[in-house]
């Protein structure tokens, strides 16, 4: 390649004292630091769109698109190293030099004055300094609002004249500093003792996170074993060294949707620097507001979250959470402590899985605690734990009881002095009774002090007042908790029992209303419980208390009789209603929980609040949580005795919606049952709601017709009142569901036309886009209506852009893609595939990710990249199987068949096609494809038998669906091989109207229809027609960039020429065969290579 002279901006970096690094820390650690240094450099370079020319050993040479970009890059380099150095023992300091001017590019390198000048400026710079030529400074202008300081004219080694230069006064980055979460501000009474080996390992894990490798530690063990204490200790140590600590906990029974994440992220949003939040919003808009509305209060102009398919909205939210954590982690270590995960709701666990899977390189440490005794095989947490075992950077810590020396250390720390012989004897007894459970140990010690078994002498030392064997050490945690609470007196027992029914945390005001006691009197009781370490008082929220341990809360609750508990639940629910005011929606979960456990007369409110809590959970993208509330409401409805059909129908519809959103395939039956109830009531609108919910937004099944869904849609349409806004959606949905089974002209067309007319008369663009998506699904069966499909998909794409709904945008791109591929408009098809891919990556929604990879397979296969197409197809199948997509394999099968055939491996798929024919008898493409593969294997009799079956039934019996042209093409190719001229002629006439189309059955494109028509015409001896078709196919294949399509076209064209055998036909055929072979060989098209070689050898032999 010839050298090119152009104006470039060049940046050099150099790591200060890199040669001394190995001597200070050793070669192995020095190499680790070098790798870290280059990672920081390259992150900054990528952010400025720079291009790394070379690695200079201690730094890099980079070319950037502009002077402003070079300055931004230099500042980012220094800022990233500064942030890293704040928490590192070994400092990494960098020099940077920048220059610009005319330089020569040649063979991947750059030469010339600006290269030399930038290198010399870099060498001249002090540690952490950025020097640049004044020429570069002038070209930056006012972009970026940077500050520069003149350093005068510098003598640079090797340059004849001094260089006027300045330094960039780069801005130091403000770290993310958030106060400790309230629960972590109450420091333990004693220092942490024991478990040195675990602490040492967790210190190593924390260092890995500091070095930028995301780490997860899951701490498990029995209640009271010290899970939260250990996690808190690690978090506090990290905080002492400058880490941001976020905390969220889960509550038994009352854990709200995403509760631990809401608590953790709220602290970050409330205290993070504005620039961090602004950076986050620029990438993720206001998606996080679904979880943390406080974001909109700190940034008043934040965009509203997008409205889309719930699954897409959920993925956008998850992406926003990941984005915020990554953004905060660029400013220093972020520790997220999620406590009591065994009580977490499924959405919270799903979000944790997403964070772990999508954050690999970040200063992020996630600590989770859970009880392994409460996570059986059916527990939601069990599935997450299994998934996390496959992720890197995840560790488990299984806590056991403290050993004898550790119990002695704990007792000595509590006493404030070393233990004497009697103390050691007591420690042994306490260890024996408690099995070393730290909570049990401390509760026994408190019990002994309160009961007089341990007293503090005048010397300050604690002494045992009797023989250890006579102290009456309680034999269970429950026993010791009960004894200690009762020692506080009957008033405290009563108040704390009511508080335990409220929950782990409670407010003095609510407890006062429930117990009907003055707040001042009650406060004195609670303060005594705080003094006795039964309660803790919130340091940030006066009047708010929490039990010191969940075991205390649980013991108090279980000690109440069932009747007393029910009465307290009712009073608590009523008190919340009376005091909630305008914030009652924020407390729906509590109200649903307490009313459900209240007295029998509370059924009505229990049902109402459970339903409202479920609807709120659905709105907050927590379908699993919603399903729990709706199911509870339905159970309460049955218990109430007087079951309202309307209420039962509504709840079942909501349950079905929640099931569908959470990926439970049982939603179909639930919604059909809800529609049946509505039908018996004669309620058309309820029938419509159930039927509309019972879909995935397009065809429900591409393999078969769902007669029950069709019947439900027909019944709902028939029962709808005039003017119902649901009618256009139902009509379009019915057209899509029935398009494979009903006559198009007499039954499908009227549905499509009426649906469009009604939807266009409405101003709801979103509803019109949904209708057009379904209409396009129905039109997939009619290749003869391509002009209509092109017009409608163009309109749908514009509508989707206007409503900013990622799911609809992805569906619109897919429908347009299907149409444009079929008419061989490759530029629009690629644009649509790119749209689908971008939308899927932006949201992370699994179904959209499946769709994006599905269409990417088509593009890659057309381009002849069989390896990439294979990868995309496999990825799509994996995603489809993981999300329970019922058609995943049936969409994958044609792609696999095409790829294996072109790769010359069709023997592998013969048996699969035989089995699929049994599984999906309605799919006309399978026997057609199978017959062709049989001819390739020389099993012509079997192929002829299959052809005879379809001939006897008549090609008119082929379903009018998206597979029809594909099936006809394969039957035609089979007929050529077995020599059935009647079939060849019939199929030629059936295919001819679609000669300008690609043979494209949605999952994979095959070739231009002209190729198949040329093959058929040649077999009929209509050689001129064949020439015309092959020539037309060549034009199409060249235009769309489909080399393997053209190789096969050349192969069939050459075979036709050899059959005609006119003058010059053989040399032309030989030329075509050589070209086809070369194209296919370069792309791994083994099947074509084999055919061409066989023919070439035959020609050359004769």
TrEMBL record:
Key words, A-Z: ATP-binding, Nucleotide-binding
InterPro entries in the cross-refs: A/G_cyclase, AAA_16, Nucleotide_cyclase, P-loop_NTPase, TPR-like_helical_dom_sf
Coiled coil: none
Highest taxon above the source species: Bacteria
Record GO biological process: cyclic nucleotide biosynthetic process; intracellular signal transduction
The keyword Transcription regulation is assigned to this record: no
Entry-linked SUPFAM superfamilies: Nucleotide cyclase (SSF55073), P-loop containing nucleoside triphosphate hydrolases (SSF52540), TPR-like (SSF48452)
Pfam families xrefs: AAA_16 (PF13191), Guanylate_cyc (PF00211)
Any one Gene Ontology molecular-function term assigned to this protein's record: adenylate cyclase activity
GO CC, alphabetical: cytoplasm
Transmembrane segments: none
Entry-linked CDD domains: AAA, CHD
PANTHER family listed in its UniProt record: GUANYLATE CYCLASE DOMAIN-CONTAINING PROTEIN (PTHR16305:SF28), TESTICULAR SOLUBLE ADENYLYL CYCLASE (PTHR16305)
The name this protein goes by in its record: Uncharacterized protein
Lineage: Bacteria, Bacillati, Actinomycetota, Actinomycetes, Mycobacteriales
């Amino acid at each position: 390649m010839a050298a090119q002279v152009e104006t470039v901006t060049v940046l050099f970096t150099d790591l200060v004292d890199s040669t001394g690094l190995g001597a200070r820390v050793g070669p192995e650690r020095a190499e680790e630091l070098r790798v870290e240094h280059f990672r920081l450099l390259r992150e900054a370079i990528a952010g400025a769109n720079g291009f790394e020319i070379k690695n200079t050993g201690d730094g890099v040479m980079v070319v950037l698109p502009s002077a402003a970009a070079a300055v931004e890059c230099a500042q980012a380099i220094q800022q990233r190293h500064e942030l890293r150095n704040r928490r590192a023992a070994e400092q990494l300091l960098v020099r940077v030099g920048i220059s610009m001017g005319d330089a020569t590019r040649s063979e991947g390198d750059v030469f010339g004055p600006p290269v030399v000048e930038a290198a010399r400026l870099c060498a001249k710079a002090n540690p952490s300094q950025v020097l640049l030529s004044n020429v570069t400074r002038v070209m930056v202008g006012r972009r970026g609002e940077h500050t520069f300081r003149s350093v005068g004219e510098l003598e640079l080694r090797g340059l004849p004249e001094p260089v006027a230069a300045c330094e960039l006064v780069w801005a130091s980055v403000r770290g993310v500093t958030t106060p400790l979460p309230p629960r972590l501000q109450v420091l333990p009474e004693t220092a942490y003792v024991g478990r040195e080996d675990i602490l040492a390992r967790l210190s190593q894990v924390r260092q890995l996170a500091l070095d930028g490798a995301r780490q997860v530690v899951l701490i498990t063990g029995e209640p009271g074993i010290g899970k939260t204490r250990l996690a808190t200790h690690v978090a506090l140590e990290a905080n002492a060294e400058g880490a941001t600590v976020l905390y969220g906990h889960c509550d038994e029974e009352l854990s709200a949707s995403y509760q631990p994440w809401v608590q953790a992220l709220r602290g970050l949003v409330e205290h993070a620097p504005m620039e961090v939040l602004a950076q986050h919003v620029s990438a993720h808009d206001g998606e996080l507001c679904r979880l943390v509305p406080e974001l909109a209060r700190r940034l008043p102009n934040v965009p509203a979250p997008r409205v889309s398919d719930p699954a897409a909205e959920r993925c956008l939210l998850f992406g926003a959470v990941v984005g915020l954590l990554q953004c905060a982690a660029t400013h220093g270590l972020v520790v997220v402590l999620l406590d009591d995960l065994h009580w977490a709701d499924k959405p919270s666990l799903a979000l944790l899985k997403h964070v772990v899977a999508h954050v690999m390189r970040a200063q992020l440490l996630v600590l989770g605690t859970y009880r392994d005794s409460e996570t059986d095989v059916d527990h939601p947490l069990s599935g997450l734990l299994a998934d996390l075992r496959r992720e890197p950077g995840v560790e488990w810590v299984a806590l056991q009881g403290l050993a004898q020396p550790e119990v002695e250390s704990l007792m000595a720390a509590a006493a404030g002095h070393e233990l004497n012989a009697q103390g050691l004897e007591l420690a042994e007894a306490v260890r024996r009774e408690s099995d070393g459970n730290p909570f049990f140990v401390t509760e026994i010690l408190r019990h002994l002090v309160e009961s007089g078994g341990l007293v503090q002498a005048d010397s300050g030392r604690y002494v045992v007042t009797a023989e250890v064997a006579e102290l009456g050490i309680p034999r269970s945690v429950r026993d010791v908790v009960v004894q200690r609470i009762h020692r506080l007196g009957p008033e405290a027992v009563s108040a704390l029992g009511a508080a335990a029914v409220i929950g782990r945390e409670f407010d003095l005001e609510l407890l006062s209303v429930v117990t009907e006691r003055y707040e001042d009197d009650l406060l004195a009781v609670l303060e005594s419980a705080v003094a006795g370490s039964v309660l803790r008082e919130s340091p940030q929220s006066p009047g708010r208390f929490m039990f010191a341990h969940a075991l205390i809360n649980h013991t108090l609750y279980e000690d109440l009789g069932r009747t007393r508990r029910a009465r307290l639940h009712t009073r608590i629910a009523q008190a919340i209603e009376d005091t909630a005011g305008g914030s009652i929606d924020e407390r729906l979960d509590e109200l649903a929980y307490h009313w459900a456990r209240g007295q029998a007369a509370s059924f009505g409110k229990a049902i109402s609040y459970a339903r409202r809590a479920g609807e709120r959970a659905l709105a907050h993208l927590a379908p699993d949580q919603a399903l729990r509330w709706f199911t509870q409401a339905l159970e309460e409805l049955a218990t109430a005795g007087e079951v309202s059909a309307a209420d039962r129908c509504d709840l079942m519809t909501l349950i079905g919606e929640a099931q569908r959103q959470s990926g439970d395939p049982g939603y179909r039956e639930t919604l059909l049952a809800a529609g049946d109830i509505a039908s018996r009531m004669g309620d058309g609108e309820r029938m419509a709601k159930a039927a509309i919910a019972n879909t995935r937004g397009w065809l429900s099944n591409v393999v078969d017709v769902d007669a029950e869904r069709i019947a439900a849609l027909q019944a709902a349409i028939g029962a709808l009142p005039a003017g119902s806004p649901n009618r256009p959606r139902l009509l379009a949905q019915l057209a899509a569901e029935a398009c494979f089974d009903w006559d198009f002209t007499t039954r499908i067309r009227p549905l499509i036309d009426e649906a469009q007319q009604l939807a266009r008369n409405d101003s709801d663009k979103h509803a019109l886009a949904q209708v057009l998506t379904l209409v396009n699904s129905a039109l997939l069966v009619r290749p003869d209506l391509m002009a209509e499909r092109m017009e409608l998909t163009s309109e749908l794409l514009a509508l989707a852009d206007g409503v900013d709904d990622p799911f609809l945008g992805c569906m619109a791109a897919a429908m347009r893609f299907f149409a444009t591929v079929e008419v061989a408009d490759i530029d629009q098809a690629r644009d649509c595939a790119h749209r689908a891919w971008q939308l899927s990556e932006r949201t992370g929604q699994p179904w959209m990710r499946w769709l994006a990879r599905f269409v990417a397979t088509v593009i890659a296969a057309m381009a002849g990249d069989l390896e990439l197409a294979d990868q995309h197809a496999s990825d799509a199948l994996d995603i489809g199987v993981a999300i329970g997509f019922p058609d995943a394999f049936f969409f994958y099968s044609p792609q696999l068949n095409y790829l294996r055939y072109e790769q010359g491996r069709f023997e592998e798929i013969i048996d699969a096609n035989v089995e699929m024919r049994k599984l999906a008898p309605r799919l006309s493409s399978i026997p057609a494809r199978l017959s062709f593969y049989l001819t390739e294997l020389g099993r012509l009799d079997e192929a002829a038998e299959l052809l005879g079956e379809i001939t006897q039934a008549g090609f008119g019996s082929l379903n009018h669906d998206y597979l029809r042209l594909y099936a006809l093409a394969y039957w035609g190719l089979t007929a050529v091989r077995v020599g059935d001229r009647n079939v060849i002629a019939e199929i030629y006439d059936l295919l001819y109207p679609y000669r300008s189309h690609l043979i494209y059955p949605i999952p994979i494109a095959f070739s231009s229809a002209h190729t198949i028509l040329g093959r058929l015409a040649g077999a009929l001896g209509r050689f001129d027609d064949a020439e015309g078709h092959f020539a037309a196919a060549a034009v199409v294949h060249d235009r769309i960039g489909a080399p393997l399509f053209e190789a096969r076209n050349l192969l069939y064209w050459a075979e036709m020429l050899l059959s005609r055998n006119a003058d010059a036909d053989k040399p032309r055929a030989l030329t075509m065969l050589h070209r086809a072979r070369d194209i296919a060989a370069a792309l791994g098209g083994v099947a074509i290579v084999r055919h061409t070689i066989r023919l070439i050898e035959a020609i050359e032999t004769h």
